[in-house]
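queue> pop job 88
queue> type: inverse folding (structure -> sequence)
queue> payload:
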């Protein structure tokens, strides 16, 4: 009888140990698989960002390489690209350098351009605009205000999207 109890106890303890070992193997395998999936997802995101960045850089190169009728047309094309969705993938140091150069060139053009308007001229134009705005029918004033608010809203949302893309 003692032999049967020893045999049963040995069998049950062996069964319990094998169940625990099987569970631990399953748990560690699952944990490893989840870690591999997370790593693969991160690698895929990085690859996609890298591909998008290369595509954006190639597009910027193409824009820079085109012929333009004037500096302002060139600047407008580049700024439109940089402010667009693809521009969010351009490395920030490149975008900063481009904008810095535009500022330098703009400063040089301001030096050789027409003189700044006097305060009296500015006041005159402000009065002209205010008079124009007052003469608009109420519906057109409301439409103009709505257009301005919509432009501001779109600008804010675009900036949030660009920041979100940059953090990916």
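queue> result:
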């Amino acid at each position: 009888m003692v032999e049967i109890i020893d045999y049963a106890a040995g069998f049950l303890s062996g069964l319990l140990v094998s169940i625990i070992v099987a569970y631990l193997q399953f748990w560690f395998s699952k944990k490893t698989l989840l870690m591999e999936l997370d790593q693969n997802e991160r690698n895929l995101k990085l690859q996609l960002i890298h591909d998008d960045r290369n595509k954006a850089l190639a597009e910027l190169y193409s824009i820079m390489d085109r012929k333009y009728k004037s500096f302002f047309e060139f600047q407008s094309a580049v700024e439109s690209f940089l402010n667009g969705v693809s521009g969010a993938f351009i490395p920030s140091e490149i975008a900063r350098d481009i904008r810095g150069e535009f500022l330098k060139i703009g400063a040089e053009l301001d030096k050789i351009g027409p003189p700044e308007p006097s305060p009296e001229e500015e006041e005159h134009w402000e009065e002209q605009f205010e008079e124009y705005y007052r003469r608009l029918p109420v519906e057109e004033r409301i439409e103009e205000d709505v257009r301005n608010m919509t432009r501001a809203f779109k600008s804010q949302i675009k900036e949030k999207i660009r920041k979100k893309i940059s953090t990916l």
